[in-house]
Each structure stands twice: as structure tokens, then as C-alpha cells.
Amino acid sequence: MRTVTVKEMRSMPRHSRWTKSHRSGAQSNCVEIGQAPGLVGIRDTKNRDGGTLVVERAAFGAFLTAVKTNRLG
Over the stretch 4-50, which tens digit does the pLDDT of each residue have? Predict the structure, then answer.
């Protein structure tokens, strides 16, 4: 695992596709996921300019696997 640089974090919104879960419907109480090469960004749907949490794609995949298999205690 490596540290994501400030430059990568700043470039995330410009170079990514943002989506939100289809299960959230018209609700605005959710997060959006953005994908860029090797990175995943996570931001608040209600405050898109409020900041983006950027993690490596492998770390996000491990997180999703843990959620789906109920391993987050």
C-alpha cells in the first residue's frame, strides 16, 4: 500500500467518473464514488466541493469485500 499524493487528490475530481448507488434513488443522503486510474474517490453527494477522500483501488476493493461479507464488526 502506498500514500496517495496531494497532486493525485487534487486531480481526482477532474479525471474521474462519479456515480452513486442506484439503491439510493432520489435521496441525497449518500456518497458518490469516483474512479480514476488506480484510485477511488469518495465524496458527499450533498457537498461535492467539500472534499474528497481518495484511496487506492485495492484498498477500496478490500473495504467493499469486508462490508459484503460482514467482517466489519
Answer: 666 666 665 555 678 887 777 777 678 888 888 888 888 888 888 88
Q: What is the 3-state secondary structure (H, E, C) of the chain?
A: CCCCCHHHHHHCCCCCEEEECHHHCCCCCCEEEEEECCEEEEEECCCCCCCCEEEEHHHHHHHHHHHHCCCCC
* Sign of the CA dihedral with 51 first, then 57, 58, and 60 last: positive
Report how far residue 53's alpha carbon sits from residue 67's, in angstroms, rounded to the nearest whole number. 18
Which of 10, 24, 18, 20 has its CA nearest to residue 54? 10
Whole-number Cα distances in Å, 13 to 20, 36, 54, 58: 14, 9, 10, 19
